[in-house]
Amino acid sequence: MKNKTLKIILWTLAFVLLLGIGTAAGYAAYVTDQVRQTATESHEELDRGEKSEKRVEVVNPADDHTSVLFVGIDDSQKRSNDANGNRNALSDALVLATFNDDNKTVKMLSIPRDSYTYIPEVGYKDKITHAHAFGGIDSTVETVERMLDVPVDYYVRLNFNSFTEIVDSMGGIQYDVPFDISEKNSRDMHGAIELDEGYQTLNGEEALALARTRKYDSDLARGQRQMELIQEIVRQSMTTSTINNIGDILQSIEDNLSTNLAFDQMIAFKEYFFQKEGLSFDKMQLDGEGTYINNVWYFDVESDSLDETKDQLRTHLGLDSLQDDDDEINSFAEDDDENDSM
């Protein structure tokens, strides 16, 4: 099954629904109780504990700049690397979101699944998607932290296969399809999804096909399309009709979600969602190109793009930029040179 990248949509759904639905004023108390129960049953701490090694202390989403790693996986037996389906799944989607508490802005970075980077769990460079197969969510978080030189405070992991269930539980989503498409469905049936260009209601299978297709435009355009789909899902998840389907939605999430966010931490993000203009975010991508190393295809991230991305994320999290650190080191070196010459 060639499910390459769903990219940004999968895990964001769980996060948006858990953070938003139960926190809006005026909704019935039982909705919040349902969300609380789902959050409790989906809670799973990292082996490292609450705090990233790149933090001095634990951050609180209510008061601090915070980062959340969204991880989309497909842990079906067919996608597993052993005959019994026992090995950890690959991560089909990785997105790091940073939340700035001062101005309530959000940045979202899509990390290409084939990015060639060092994986601490095994001690060598490989595709970043393999980090989850090697050591689960703990290995994935550690690898992303090392690659981007920023703390990953929290994670949200959602099973790839739940995407269609969640969209269907919402009653579908309204979206302006940019072109006619003919695509496989989630069971790899060719031509099962036929869509005409234009504004329409998409069910789960149709939304998934539109998010995954790579035949009709560039990877860059596809990334933009996926971001737009997320924004529509976020907006439409806050409607009354979605709330009426809360039971089905939460059941889809509960069966397929794990996160180290506690319920109180989740609802601390509500101010990002209920601003006057609604949730919006700065979309970020890493530049690079495909390359073969030892006859294996990888995405080789450009060093300048990676450095610039690191600095943007660190600045958004209120951390010192790497450039500032380099300048400080260089100034110390210059001082030492001056002392040596005296």
Automatic annotation (TrEMBL):
The UniProt annotation puts the region (Disordered) at 322-342
Which GO BP terms apply? Answer: cell wall organization
Q: Residue ranges of the Cell envelope-related transcriptional attenuator domain?
A: 91-237
Q: Sorted alphabetically, which keywords does the UniProt record give?
A: Membrane, Signal-anchor, Transmembrane, Transmembrane helix
| Pfam families with a match to the protein in the record | LytR_cpsA_psr (PF03816)
Entries under PANTHER family matching the protein: POLYISOPRENYL-TEICHOIC ACID--PEPTIDOGLYCAN TEICHOIC ACID TRANSFERASE TAGT (PTHR33392:SF3), POLYISOPRENYL-TEICHOIC ACID--PEPTIDOGLYCAN TEICHOIC ACID TRANSFERASE TAGU (PTHR33392)
Family statement = Belongs to the LytR/CpsA/Psr (LCP) family.
NCBIfam families attached here?
Answer: lytR_cpsA_psr
From the Swiss-Prot or TrEMBL record, give the protein name: LCP family protein
* Organism field: Halobacillus locisalis
